[in-house]
Amino acid sequence: MTRPLLSFFLISYNQEAFIEEAIEGAFAQTWSPLEILVVDDCSTDRTFELAQAMAARYRGPHQVRCLRTPRNGGIGKSVNLAMEQSRGELVIGSAGDDVSLPHRVEALFDAWDQTGRRATSLFSSYRTITASGEDLGEGGTRGDPRDTTRLRPQTGTLEEFLTTKWPVVVGCTHAWSPCLFEFFGPLTSNLEDLVLSFRSLAIGQMLYVHEPLVKYRRHGSNVSFFAGGDDTRSFEHRERRLRWVDEQTAAAYDNMIADLAVLRERGRLSAAECARLQTIARRERDWYATERELMDAPFGRRLRLIAGVAARGQWRAALGFLPRGLPRPVYRSLYEWRRRRRPRASASTAPSG
């Protein structure tokens, strides 16, 4: 049987300290034929230059290309560029600070092939490492850890996903079918793991591979929160991360609202069902948008925002937002008090979806 061409994406931005190890992980892949696309999002450091030099020196079996976005646009724009340029039947994603194990592509293809190549999203567990490469253990597992079943389908309804964001792929280990872009079009969000999970639940299948296939690196420049615990170093660090997460999650819901319209246009949803799901998505989007605005709004504006949430009958959300209505020094003191009382991630994960 002729082996199909697969595509390996490596998305990078200002990761000169890690990019060479990440590219070495791509070069070491045992699967062939494989095209490797290193996509740099206009790094301001030497990330792109290091990638170009490695590509020029490479003499292995894989096809290697280095691409650069015309301007810094985030993960979504980099993925869109890679999808425009790729030719593989399955796409394996990677970040410029993570390291893929040599058999990762082979293992994901085997899992995909066992589904009759019907799975549209595949992902695995990972090994967490520090900036220096110290191993912190396995993460991202799904289901009972005592279960030895290797391939585990992940299922759920679109309504459940919109309200819980679950099940969702582990982004640093994600591989997907190009049909997710052929059906819905390019991404308008930087949370590609969230949007592509939604798309897979809508038109395809999601599959978890119970094996760590990636070394996921936590370091001082990670923008997402760590699933293993709060590894922020200060109040300001946490606020900076939360701003990014709120902005990107609101944008991801906008992307999913547009995807619902595509599902309706292409006969996958009725008009009534599309409207109902879009209403749910807008409600969830507004929660993140409100929290983001509360972070920087003047005192009076914060009170009006919380009152507006309560007036819409969303009492639980309004109560959750109340601490944000406090004067900022008081809110900060409250946060520091709670921070001292809750478990934290290991200090070795801090210099970090």
Task: Provide a descriptive summary of the structure in words.
- The protein is α/β, with parallel strands linked by helices.
- It folds into 2 domains: 6-217, Spore Coat Polysaccharide Biosynthesis Protein SpsA, Chain A (Alpha-Beta Complex); 235-349.
- The protein has 12 helices and 10 strands.
- It has helices spanning 19-27, 47-57, 75-85, 104-114, 158-164, 179-184, 192-203, 235-265, 271-296, 299-311, 315-321, 328-341; strands at residues 6-12, 34-40, 63-68, 91-92, 99-100, 121-129, 135-139, 151-154, 175-176, 206-217.
- Strands 1, 2, 3, 4, 5, 6, 7, 8, 9 and 10 form a 10-stranded mixed sheet that branches.
- The longest helix has 31 residues, at 235-265.
- The relative contact order is 0.12.
Short description:
The chain is an alpha/beta fold.
Under CATH, the topology of the largest domain is which? Spore Coat Polysaccharide Biosynthesis Protein SpsA, Chain A
Count of alpha and pi helical runs = 12
* Chain oligomer state: single chain
Average of pLDDT: 93
Tell me what portion of residues adopts beta-strand conformation. Answer: 15-25%
Question: How many strands appear in the DSSP assignment?
Answer: 10
